[in-house]
């Protein structure tokens, strides 16, 4: 058997490898450098009955400060391949397939696609993390979701111990969910006994299907406003990407790129894309006392999913609460077809928790100053601080509106059900 993986002499803590910068020591950290090594690392952990946590960019994980007694596996494979011609002949089929191993940085992939004039992914610019995790929670923003682009996902099935290709139709994609995520939970935020904090299916690679073209329609009203155009207008892809990055930066919804200069995150992004991301934050760096002011970016992004409630619950909300009718297919079938999605940010704000809210003056765990839905680590917060803040918000929203907020990040060692 070839030497397929390497275990470092010392291991990082979860705080070193997550965007929240929180979490305890790791018993074993393995970084396979090929597909066989990845499967072997996962299979070794499973056959020895050890807890397994696959980690990508660590941007959707809030981990306990307690020691993690198992194996953390990070896929170091990066790369993008295009099996079809990138530029089809005049009048030909504009469809283009694009494949990337799970460890590829997501925004490196988006940036590549935009440069290659591939349409459909530009709205997902600037989302932190990896290609592998993107399909676990079906990342989405500005009217696009990765689930709408997936052709197939190559997985290692930890239960049946085989590799398989899951097609988009098998993956049960819904709002911030997929078949992969569903295998991790018995009920919302209640971990499965076997497959938590990593799904039954470990992603090996993802194939997306995009279209060739140099401009795309701006579907999202918020984005259209930022671009000063009508929704539905067609604009060059690069312009849309830059607008998305600007809007995200204004909400603290880009990760701190300086993390990729640390020992444990170095090499996890393509050098040229990292340079661009670093250049983009130079202007943000000087705080009033010359300190770095990127602390609002140490988060998991949106901490709670937007609740999907029955029509009756939605009717009881104040008239100005946002309401979006949703397809019941991916929701609780018992609730009937009339389901309504409302805004977690609106509920939090209208329960008295405004931007910047914390449980005590100077507390290192606080809501972002730019975005009500992001819990941030202002430096030195522990998992208990973030859990106390999250619970206070859940209880407040429950009390005010009778709606229970479900966390979006995966929370090993932490119960926020
Ligand atoms: C500033 C900020 C902004 C964000 N904005 C958005 C947004 O706009 N939209 C959105 O949808 N999300 C957003 N997120 C959340 C996050 O970026 C996504 O969930 C992302 O896909 C997580 O990727 P990751 O590689 O960091 O996953 P990780 O946090 O490393 O892992 C998350 C989960 O995926 C599992 N996992 C990781 N790799 C694999 C694999 N190969 N196979 C199987 N399971 C795996 C892990 O075990 C874990 O359960 C944001 C986060 C931050 C910090």
Automatic annotation (TrEMBL):
The keyword Cell division applies. Keywords: Cell cycle, Cell division, Cell shape, Cell wall biogenesis/degradation, Cytoplasm, FAD, Flavoprotein, NADP, Oxidoreductase, Peptidoglycan synthesis. Pathway: Cell wall biogenesis; peptidoglycan biosynthesis. It catalyses: UDP-N-acetyl-alpha-D-muramate + NADP(+) = UDP-N-acetyl-3-O-(1-carboxyvinyl)-alpha-D-glucosamine + NADPH + H(+). This is UDP-N-acetylenolpyruvoylglucosamine reductase. Cell wall formation. Belongs to the MurB family. PANTHER family: UDP-N-ACETYLENOLPYRUVOYLGLUCOSAMINE REDUCTASE. Pfam families: FAD_binding_4, MurB_C. It is an enzyme of class 1 (oxidoreductase). Residues 22-250 form the FAD-binding PCMH-type domain. Its EC number is 1.3.1.98.
């Amino acid at each position: 058997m070839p030497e397929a993986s390497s275990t470092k002499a010392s291991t990082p803590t979860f705080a070193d490898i997550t965007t929240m910068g929180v979490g305890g020591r790791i018993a074993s950290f393995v970084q396979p450098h090929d597909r066989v090594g990845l499967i072997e690392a996962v299979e070794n952990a499973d056959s020895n009955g050890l807890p397994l946590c696959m980690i990508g960019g660590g941007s959707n994980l809030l981990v306990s400060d307690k020691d993690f007694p198992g194996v953390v596996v990070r896929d170091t494979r990066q790369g993008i391949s295009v099996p079809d011609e990138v530029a089809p002949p005049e009048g030909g089929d504009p469809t283009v397939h694009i494949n990337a191993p799970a460890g590829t940085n997501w925004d490196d992939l988006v940036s590549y696609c935009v440069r290659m004039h591939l349409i459909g992914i530009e709205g997902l610019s600037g989302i932190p993390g990896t290609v592998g995790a993107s399909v676990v929670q079906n990342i989405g923003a500005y009217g696009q979701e990765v689930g709408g682009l997936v052709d197939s996902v190559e997985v290692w099935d930890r239960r049946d111990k085989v590799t398989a290709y899951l097609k988009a139709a098998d993956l049960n994609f819904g709002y911030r969910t997929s078949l992969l995520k569903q295998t991790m939970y018995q009920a919302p935020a209640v971990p499965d006994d076997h497959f938590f904090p990593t799904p039954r299916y470990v992603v090996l690679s993802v194939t997306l299907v995009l279209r060739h073209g140099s401009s795309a329609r701006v579907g999202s009203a918020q984005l259209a406003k930022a671009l000063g155009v009508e929704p539905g207008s067609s604009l060059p892809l690069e312009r849309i990407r830059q607008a998305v990055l600007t809007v995200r930066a204004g909400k603290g919804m880009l990760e701190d790129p300086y993390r990729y200069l640390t020992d444990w995150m170095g090499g996890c992004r393509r050098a040229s894309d990292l340079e661009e991301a670093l250049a983009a934050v130079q202007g943000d760096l000087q705080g009033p006392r010359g300190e770095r002011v990127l602390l609002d970016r140490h988060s998991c992004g949106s901490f709670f999913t937007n609740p999907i409630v029955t029509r009756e619950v939605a009717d009881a909300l104040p008239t100005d609460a946002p309401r979006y009718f949703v397809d019941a297919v991916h929701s609780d079938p018992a609730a009937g077809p009339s389901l309504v999605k409302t805004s977690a940010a609106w509920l939090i704000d209208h329960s008295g928790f405004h931007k910047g809210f914390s449980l005590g003056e100077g507390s290192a765990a606080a809501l972002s100053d730019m975005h009500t839905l992001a819990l941030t680590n202002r430096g030195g917060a522990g998992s208990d601080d973030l859990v106390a803040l999250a619970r206070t918000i859940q209880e407040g929203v429950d009390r005010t509106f009778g709606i229970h907020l479900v966390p979006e990040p995966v929370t090993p060692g932490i119960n926020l059900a």
